[in-house]
């Protein structure tokens, strides 16, 4: 697999389109950090890290609105790809849907959202947009 983050986002996207409640993805430290951010920002209901075998898995419980049956995540978009990396400074931080969505960045201080990186005045690689 050449792009595990794109695979992670695609598994989430496919589970949302199929209206699944839970999706399992192979674990990595970067995927765990992205999952924590999605939980903190309210895009997923819950998550659980399962340590089985050398890699482990992440179980993600997706969040749906009970009245309209729509998911909290409207769109997941991979920005920086292995063939074309996208970096940004804190002054040129991307705004996702005029501040309603989040951009997840990999910085020297760890994985964080665009707003957190702006407050710390650090830039990094833009991994994905979530809204």
Order of helices and strands: HEHEEEEEEHE
How many strands in all?
8
The percentage of residues in β strands lies in 25-35%
Helical amount:
25-40%
What would you call the quaternary organization?
single chain
In whole angstroms, how far apart are the ends?
26 Å
Shape category: globular
What is the count of DSSP helices, taking H or I runs of 4+ residues? 3
Report the uncertain regions.
none
Average pLDDT confidence is 96
Derived from helix and strand composition plus strand pairing, the structural class reads alpha+beta
Blueprint of the fold:
Elements: H1 4-17, E1 22-26, H2 29-40, E2 44-50, E3 57-62, E4 76-78, E5 87-88, E6 102-107, E7 110-113, H3 114-120, E8 124-130
Description:
The chain has 131 residues and is α+β, with helices and mostly antiparallel strands. It contains three helices and eight strands, in the order αβαββββββαβ. The chain has helices at residues 4-17, 29-40, 114-120, and strands spanning 22-26, 44-50, 57-62, 76-78, 87-88, 102-107, 110-113, 124-130. Strands 4, 5, 6, 7 and 8 form a five-stranded antiparallel beta sheet that branches.
Summarize the structure.
It contains three helices and eight strands, in the order H-E-H-E-E-E-E-E-E-H-E. The chain is of the alpha+beta class and 131 residues long.
């Amino acid at each position: 697999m050449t792009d595990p983050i794109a695979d992670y986002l695609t598994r989430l996207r496919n589970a949302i389109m199929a209206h699944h409640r839970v999706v399992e993805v192979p674990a990595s430290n970067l995927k765990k950090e992205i999952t924590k951010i999605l939980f903190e920002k309210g895009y997923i209901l819950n998550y659980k890290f399962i340590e089985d075998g050398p890699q482990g898995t992440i179980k993600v419980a997706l969040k749906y609105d009970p009245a309209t049956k729509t998911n909290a995540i409207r769109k997941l978009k991979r920005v920086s790809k292995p063939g074309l990396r996208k970096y940004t400074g804190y002054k040129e931080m991307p705004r996702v849907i005029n501040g309603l969505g989040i951009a997840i960045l990999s910085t020297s201080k760890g994985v964080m959202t665009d707003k957190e990186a702006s407050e710390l005045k650090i830039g990094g690689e833009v991994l994905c947009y979530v809204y």
